[in-house]
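The following record pairs a protein chain with its ligand, iron/sulfur cluster.
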Amino acid sequence: MKSAILTDLTKCIGCEACALACKEINELPVSAPMNMLSAYTWSAVEHRNGVNIRRQCMHCEEPACVSACPVAALEKTKEGAVIYDAGKCMGCRYCMVACPFGVPKYEWDKSIPTIQKCILCHEKALSQGKEPACTSACPTGATIFGERAALLREAQKRIDENPGSYVPHIYGMREAGGTSVFYLSAVPFADLGFPGNLKEDPYPKLTWKVLSKIPNIVSTGGVLLLGIWWIINRRIKLQDENPPSV
Ligand code: SF4
Ligand code: SF4
Ligand code: SF4
């Protein structure tokens, strides 16, 4: 099954139960603010123009973050989640630059930082046949989990049956080539801080169109970064094998 999340902003009461459930299942510090995404808040609830806006990774169908990562630390699973392996991450932050939604965040305060973001509860819920913690915690059904095509049909049905309650747009259906997280809203998405100028072509396709014109830069940069990554990993391994005495 190809999983997805539909968040209907007209039903969100801003209680932050989704954000808190995300912190609990992922063992993230509750002290980190829940009104914006950060390395320690993978599910946020922003309050803007009188609307409560749940934010998380969009789990793009063809993710730019995956194609930009030189060491394949990020991966799109067949179930729809875009996951990552912190052990592979070399901290280059290419994914942060590539993501059209500004989702990946960096652990700026750590000595060996990695990227952090929502992983659609891939390991702790999806792979065990359970739904993500955030959707199961929502008391109003504002954010729901389900099969991608079924959720798209549900979203369209809500718009068709209540045209006065929604702007006629399912955000995420086409943006950046389509995502696995969709939004409905009564307020235009541009007024809520959703990127409005996104191409409908998948971003990896666009990225490679540009990169293919500068092959020397790509290959030189790639070799350099891989070298840095090798040195960092070797240092970590040496530290693990020979921990400093206290
Ligand atoms: S929203 Fe950004 S981080 Fe999430 S899958 Fe898409 S490109 Fe990757
Ligand atoms: S799907 Fe899981 S990791 Fe993603 S926001 Fe929801 S609880 Fe957090
Ligand atoms: S749990 Fe549901 S109602 Fe509460 S903030 Fe999250 S999406 Fe909104």
